[in-house]
Design goal:
This protein has helices spanning 2-10, 13-16, 21-33, 40-63, 117-137, and strands at 71-76, 79-88, 92-98, 112-116. The protein is an alpha+beta fold. A 4-stranded antiparallel beta sheet has the order 1-2-3-4.
């Protein structure tokens, strides 16, 4: 699909950093909704665009010091079910599914659900700390 190549070119980091968090989240959903019967090379292109968007989204969310836009992954078979936090409430966060890689959906969450805020914070901040310690070890 030329769409993913075109998006890949258009969504280079220098362009994406000019977008706000809402724009990046909506673009990620739009890319995720594209194509259900993709060839392997098309799937790789789609995943490359999604990876770029998720990195930019995480960077923007960290800069804004918000959980909104952060990624939560649930282990599934040989991969993950991937979700993005779209809304933060007082005690819960709303997560929405991203059709990434094998497209796993967590049975507990379906395509959207609310999860405990404390769980989301521990998961995300724990991953942040792991990444910091891993970067220091290199």
């Amino acid at each position: 699909m030329d769409l993913f190549k075109t998006l890949g070119e258009a969504l280079k980091p220098e362009f994406v950093t000019k977008l706000n968090l809402d724009d990046v989240i909506q673009t990620l959903f739009a890319v995720s909704a594209r194509g259900t019967k993709l060839s392997f090379s098309e799937l790789r292109e789609k995943m490359a665009v999604q990876d770029n968007l998720m990195k930019q989204m995480e960077t923007l969310a960290k800069e804004e010091k918000t959980l909104r836009g952060r990624i939560i992954r649930f282990p599934m078979a040989d991969s993950y079910a991937v979700y993005v936090i779209t809304k933060v409430n007082k005690k819960t966060v709303h997560i929405s599914w991203i059709d990434y890689c094998d497209g796993w959906v967590d049975d507990r969450c379906g395509k959207e659900c609310k999860i405990n805020l404390d769980y989301a914070q521990k998961t995300i901040y724990g991953r942040d700390e792991f990444e910091k310690s891993w970067a220091k070890a290199k």
